[in-house]
Amino acid sequence: MTQRAPAAIGDRLEDVDTPALLLDLDAFERNQKTLFDLVKNRVRVRPHAKTHKCAEVAKRQIALGAVGMCCQKVSEAEAMVDGGVADVLVSNEIVGARKIERLAALARRAKVGVCVDHPDNVRELGKTGANLDVYIEIDVGMRRCGVPPGEPAVLLAKEIQKHANLRFAGLQAYHGRAQHIRSMEERHGVIETAAQHVFHTKRLLQKAGIACPIVTGAGSGTFMLEVGAGAWDEIQPGSYAFMDADYARNEWAAPLPRFEHALFVLATVMSRPAGMAIVDAGLKASSVDSGMPGVWEMPGVSYTKASDEHGWLEGKALPALGEKVLLVPGHCDPTINLYDWYVCVRNRRVEDLWPISARGAVY
Known about the structure:
29% of the residues lie in helices and 23% in strands. By secondary structure, it is of the alpha/beta class. The protein folds into 2 domains: 13-22 and 259-355, Lyase, Ornithine Decarboxylase, Chain A, domain 1, CATH 2.40.37; 42-240, Alanine racemase (TIM Barrel). Strands 1, 10, 11, 12, 13, 14, 15, 16 and 17 form a 9-stranded mixed beta sheet that branches. The radius of gyration is 22 Å and the shape is globular.
């Protein structure tokens, strides 16, 4: 059940109920322009909806030139298609009869792609009769899903070609671990190695007479490195739209731009014990898997600890009882998944409310 929104359009920022997920529209729009201007006419952009989980955000990205959305789960893809997105890539392996049945049903309503890394999975997709774009995921260093680069990908492409309803659409080559390598030099080196895996696989596919239409991958921490390497045709950044405290710890230098913090958790100081301030935003309001949230524009104040419904602020010049505080999530993706609404703010006024329609879409 969707909870009621914590604000109404026209409210002052100070009157928004808390905890609330705030989107600074000016910063969000500048982040969008920065990315799309940088890569225009160089690669296709397919932003990742696993970050924003919101059809309203997707529509704005598509209006700027995105070819469609990436999703990580079938339920996310369903929410995007329901919201008006006509082209989705489930950049993940979908295994199990019920999930595959839902994927096939979705492919009758929209253009749908999916990733594979096993011939048994290909055969199950083939049995559906649904027209699907199938991408072979190759492991370029993530050590998660994917076949090894080279000949294993060629063999899997041949399996895909046996099924009339399946189209070999290309390669998925995503190096998630590279996104948060702090040093630009190290990040660059990892992506160069990944690019060589892609080039090697494409050469073998070509030798086998198999066209590779698209190589897709890349994230917010590396996308310009993939563009520069020349091995990718499509990029999948997600967090760039919002940024978070963990991404802020990366070294940012050319050719990568520095994006702005656009996403915040608004919290209220609910108690003032000696030497600390307790806010109403704890583990259920901000993910801490990548570290504690940052405290926005309060130098010397840190968010030091969290329990279910409470957060500890410590430091100098602590906020007063009842004061509102902006927190920068440590990791934007799982934080967004905790909320039903974006409270969209411009000039300290609520301009819009966007439902997070794929919230909880993990199946």
